[in-house]
Amino acid sequence: MIAKLSGLLDSTGLDWAIIDVAGVGYLVSASARTLRRLGSPGAAVSVLTEMWVSEDKMALYGFADAEERDWFRLLTTVQGVGAKVALNLLSVLSPDELTTSIAAQDKTSLCRADGVGPKLAARILNELKDKVAAFALPAAASAPPVKGGAAPAGPVSAVGDAVSALVNLGYRRIDAFTAVNKAVQQLGAEADMSALIRAGLKELSQ
C-alpha cells in the first residue's frame, strides 16, 4: 500500500501528475486543486496517496492534504461516485465548500462538477448529510452534551428552522445556511431561532 510520495514533480496534465521518486516515475491522478498546489515541473513535492487495485488496473490518487484525501474516501462511499467523479467534485469545491454545500442541501453547487447530475447530487446530499453535520455546525457541536452523552438537539433544530425561515423569505438555501452558521459562531450554541434569524438577516444584508 502506497500512502505517500515525496520526490520531484516531473510533469502534469489536466488531471494527473508524474512524480519522480528516486528515478521511478509514479503516475498520480489528482484534483485541479491539488495540481495547482504542486507547482512547476522540477519542484520538490509531497502528496498523500490512495491506491486502488482491481483485477485489471492499479491506480494512485494524490492529495495535497489529509482533508482532501478524507473527502475523497467519503465521497466514494456513495453509490455512483467513483474516483473520477470524486476528483471532479474536489476540483470545483474545496473541502470546506463541500461541507457547507452538503449541510445546506445545495444541489446546484454539486452539479458544477463534471459527471454530477441532479440525481447523483441528490444521492450525495442524502447519504452524506448526517456525516458532515458535526463539521458544518462547529458551534453547535461544541455545546455540552446532555446526560447520557447524546448531542443536544436544540441548537441544530434552531439552525434548521432559521435556515428554512430565510429560504421562505426568498434567500438561496446555500446563502441562508452560510449566514446562519456565522450567526451560530457569533451568538453561541444556545441561541434561539429568532436570534439566529435576526443575525442571519444582518449578515445577508452586508
Q: Can you tell me about this structure?
A:
With 206 residues, this protein is α+β, with helices and mostly antiparallel strands. The chain folds into 3 domains: 4-64, Beta Barrel (OB fold (Dihydrolipoamide Acetyltransferase, E2P)); 67-136, Orthogonal Bundle (DNA polymerase, domain 1), CATH 1.10.150; 137-206, no CATH class. Helix content is 51%, strand content 18%. The chain has helices spanning 32-38, 66-75, 83-92, 95-103, 107-110, 118-136, 138-141, 154-168, 173-187, 193-205, and strands at residues 4-12, 16-21, 24-30, 44-53, 58-63. A 5-stranded mixed beta barrel has the order 1-2-3-5-4. Helix 2 (66-75) crosses helix 3, helix 4 crosses helix 6 (118-136) and helix 9 (173-187) packs across helix 10. Residues 138-154 have low confidence and may be disordered.
Radius of gyration over alpha carbons?
A: 20 Å
Distance between the termini: 50 Å
Which structural class best describes the helix and strand composition? alpha+beta
Strand content range = 15-25%
CATH class assignment of the largest domain: Mainly Alpha
The H-and-E topology, N to C, reads as EEEHEEHHHHHHHHH
Q: What is the overall shape? A: elongated
Largest sheet: 5 strands, mixed, barrel
CATH fold group of the largest domain: DNA polymerase, domain 1
Whole-number count of domains: 3
Strand order within the widest sheet? 1-2-3-5-4
* Helix percentage: 40-55%
Tell me the number of strands. 5
CATH superfamily of the largest domain: 5' to 3' exonuclease, C-terminal subdomain
Spans of at least 5 consecutive residues whose pLDDT stays below 50 are 138-154
Mean pLDDT: 86
| CATH architecture call of the largest domain | Orthogonal Bundle
